[in-house]
Amino acid sequence: MSRSNLELKVGIISVMGIVILVAGSIWGRDVKLSSSYNRVSFVFSHSGGLRPGDPVTVNGIKKGRVETVELNDREVVVGITLSSKVKLYHDVSAHISMLDLMGGTNLEISPGVGMQSLTTTELQQPIRGSGVTNLGLLIGEFQGLKLKTDTLLSAMNQSVNSLNHMLDENTLVRPLKESVAQLNSATRLMNKVLSENENALVGLIKNSSSASNELRQLLENKRKVLEKSIDTFARMTGKMDTVSTELSAISRQFHNRKGSLARLIYDDQIYDDLQKTITGVDSLTITLKKDLGRFLQNTDVNLLNLIKF
Predict the structure, then answer these.
(1) Which of 21, 193, 203, 250 is the most buried (most CB within 10 A)?
(2) 133 by DSSP, 3-state: which?
């Protein structure tokens, strides 16, 4: 074999090795050499350990890869390349999940079950992710749950101690026993009283029954009288209603200054006339007291006949 042939074989093997290495690298890193992929972004509250190059699965099937993981203010924006054959709908959801305990993660996408798919313009806008599942987050949540559990157990311990204090022999048990004993004593006393007065109680019940029968008989015998009294009371009530109505009418007339009595009270002219009349009567009385003797001085008057008259 000549030296030139050996160099040619070595060159061919080297080129083949480089090609295999490059192809393996491309296949291992899932580098896309065609344009049949779309760029989509999702927004999460936490990255969950997701890194560029991690797989993107749709319903458990690998359909893309993570390209970028960036912090945007308080949220994490994850940029991915997704196969153009995958259609996303308006109820699409994305979840960062853990592949294994060694820290591997992936982005799981559920395309949705709606009828209307996202347009190209809508795909250019970040889509809100639904959640993150990560071992570290789970451990943190477990620690928070442990703290809450410890607090709950402490509160329960205090409650048990308080209950034990309440159920103490001197605090509850002994007074409860005494109350039960007193109740038993009172029950025995009541039974004794009932036993000793059984005949009296039976007689009382019989007397009550007899009195009830007599009252029923009395009501039956006096039914007509009672009915007549009720009718009389009803008529009296009707008359009282009539009188009340008439009084109301008189009150309205009096309030409206109608009728003789209202005019007598409210008419100023009548009041003035009465005042003048009273004044004249008073004057005439005074005059008669003063001059009655002078008027009868030369007059022969038989006082008896005048009185009889």
Answers:
(1) 250
(2) coil
pLDDT value of position 78: 94
CA distance to 95, 200, 205, 214, 217, per residue, from 210 (Å): 89, 15, 9, 6, 10
Phi, psi angles (nearest 5°) of residue 289: -60, -40
Q: From 131, 63, 68, select the one nearest 96 (Cα to Cα).
A: 131
Q: What is the tens place of the pLDDT at every residue in 91-150?
A: 999 988 887 666 678 899 999 988 888 888 888 899 998 877 766 556 666 777 778 888
Q: How far is CA 275 from CA 16, 268, 271, 292, in A?
A: 149, 11, 6, 25
* First and final C-alpha spacing in the chain: 195
Alpha-carbon torsion, ordered 169, 173, 177, 179, to 10 deg: 120
Sign of the torsion formed by the C-alpha atoms of 238, 242, 245 and 251: negative
* 3-state SS string for the chain: CCHHHHHHHHHHHHHHHHHHHHHHHHHHHCCCCCCCEEEEEEEECCCCCCCCCCEEEECCEEEEEEEEEEEECCEEEEEEEEECCCCCECCCEEEEEECCCCCCEEEEEECCCCCCECCHHHHCCCEECCEECCHHHHHHHHHHHHHHHHHHHHHHHHHHHHHHHHCCHHHHHHHHHHHHHHHHHHHHHHHHHHHHCHHHHHHHHHHHHHHHHHHHHHHHHCHHHHHHHHHHHHHHHHHHHHHHHHHHHHHHHHHCCCCHHHHHHHCHHHHHHHHHHHHHHHHHHHHHHHHHHHHCCCCCCCHHHHHHC
C-beta separation of 121 from 33 below 8 A = no
d(C-alpha 228, C-alpha 212), whole Å: 23
Give pLDDT tens digits for 13-70. Answer: 887 888 787 777 666 555 555 558 889 999 998 888 888 999 999 998 999 999 999 9
All structural domains of the chain with their residue ranges: 32-133
